[in-house]
Design a protein that fits this description.
The structure holds two protein chains of two kinds. By secondary structure, chain A is mainly α. Chain A has six helices and three strands. In chain A, strands 1-2 form a two-stranded antiparallel ribbon. In chain A, helix 3 packs across helix 6 and helix 5 packs across helix 6. The two termini of chain A are 40 Å apart. Chain B has a five-stranded mixed beta sheet. In chain B, strands 6, 7, 10, 11 and 12 form a five-stranded antiparallel beta sheet that branches. In chain B, strands 19-18-22-23-24 form a five-stranded antiparallel beta sheet, with no helix packed on it. Chain B folds into two domains: 156 residues, Immunoglobulin-like, CATH 2.60.40; 164 residues, Oxidoreductase, molybdopterin-binding domain (Sulfite Oxidase, Chain A, domain 2), CATH 3.90.420. Chain B is mainly β. Chain B is built from eight helices and 24 strands. The chains are: A mainly alpha, B mainly beta. Chains A and B meet through helix 2, helix 5 and strand 3 of A and strand 4, strand 5, strand 6, strand 7 and helix 5 of B. Strand 3 of chain A pairs parallel with strand 15 of chain B.
Chain lengths: 187, 434
Amino acid sequence: MFMRNQKITGVLTLIAAALVSACATTADNNSASTPTRGPNLGAAPTAAMLAAMDTSIPPSGAGLPAGSGNVAQGAKVYAAKCETCHGPKGVGKPADPLVGGIGSLASGNPMRTVGSYWPYATTFFDYVRRAMPTNAPQTLTNDEVYAVAAYVLNLNGIVPESAVMNAQSLPQVKMPNRDGFIDYSRK
Amino acid sequence: MNTEKASQALIATGETSGETSIAPTDTKRRRFLTRSASVAGTLATGGVTANAAAQEVPAWMKSPGAPMRGYGTPSKFEEPVKRPFASGYATVSPGTGSSRTPHQSLEGTITPSGLHFERHHNGVPDIDPAKHELLIHGLVTRPLVFNLATLSRYPMISRTHFVECAGNSGANSGPKPAQTTVGGIHGLASVSEWTGVPLSLLLNEAGIASGAQWVLAEGADSAAMTRSVPLTKIMDDAMVALYQNGERVRPEQGYPMRLLLPGWEGNMNVKWLRRIKVTDAPTHTKDETSKYSDLQPDGKARQFTFELGVKSIITFPSFGHKLDRRGPYELTGIAWSGAGRISRVEVSADGGASWSNANLQGPIYSKSFTRFRLPWEWTGTAAVLQSRAIDEKGNVQPTRQAFTSQYVAGMSYHNHYIQSWAIAADGSISNVYA
């Protein structure tokens, strides 16, 4: 596929032809044609690398890790790691509110929170695990993330006081605004 | 009404629409006068009265100048031209927030790299390029890892495109118009020449498996920012950008590599790109559900509104400038569209009652800024300046009423409605809702 050194003349000819072609057909770079073949220099990732990096969690819950947490444990995690920015019981500054506003979206005075607006509980796990707390991201254990999810969902009245969040229960949580979005990706 | 229109005559040199009066003029001369009077608003009286000091040999001609430097910076006299910025999390994460391109002080269409807007979700990471890798995996035949050295051996393309935050112009979503500069309102949009590797090349090498419909892109910042992107966009014109305006991408813009999705909301152009996972469906990340979704009055939200709407802003004159004398000025501004090229920009001096076509400065790139200009005679009375862009797909920049009526009050994403600048009789300029 690729020219070797001894074919350098041929390469130069190809380049010249490409330049002529570009000049003849396009007025600017933005409309120039895009190369379609590369030199195949990608390496195979190790299984360990894949496992370490593949942490995103879709609504199905695929990829959720082992571990679990309950509401009471979550309250402790929240007080220690979240409350400084999010305020007591999920409402406070400087961060966006996590709790409240359920049923408010069509009221003319909408309040968008985890409880009122987020369509999937898996998103909460995914985001908290990768980005929270802001001052020390990716330091919470999986148990702690499950626990704080249980706590915030309970503050919103979405799961009961006895709720335990884990890889099985979290994707089962039906968020109040689950059907509140219109997909514009193909419009 | 007719009297006021005549007094605010736009001196059109192209085709005209509406009932604007046309006044013949010497366009070249007027442009010269106007330009010399508008440099960053700091030389407001220049261009008319000669500088008496210039009759003596200036000091900088009587001694050797400064030596060479390894990397240049603007003149110290341009020090006021910089990005305003704000963080809502100053104590825990001062790098969470945004800085804005000061369009009111810039010309042409390329944003200097040091003035490109920033929007970070937990600051700018200090990435060692020798330790940074890009993983492509998920629904592919064989997962692949690339680094800067391997990517640098791929065929590259250069494209001139804007990047615009979905929250740009959000300041115009409040109940009252914000009295701030073009940069303060519309500064979350910037243009660079981006050079890098088409992402389709890398995905073709990995081999797209059946069922693949979307990808998830992830950044290597301390927010590990993620967004879902339809595979069709990735294969159409997505780029792994390695260079910005000829040099390596700036740290604030994703060093050593960022995703570039021409014309689509900035947040999806994931900086510090470390991972592309090919998936069958969107992952519904935080930033594509709780943020950047557009809530309607009925309580439903539009999700995945990726392509940015056709838009234009008059950058001169605008808030912060002051017209110090009646007479000729050159109106100028920038127009852009996520759908393609700008085909026309119309300008009004009477709040949209009548319009004249502005001159478009070439080259007109797809999904990039197009500079427009129009000579204007200001007679010292009140005027409301507006610009309205139309793109090659026929999309027309909406009025404030047409845009805002689609959403709940205060909906601050994807705002692209017509900006109005009111010129008062004393030449001062304010942001108005019209």
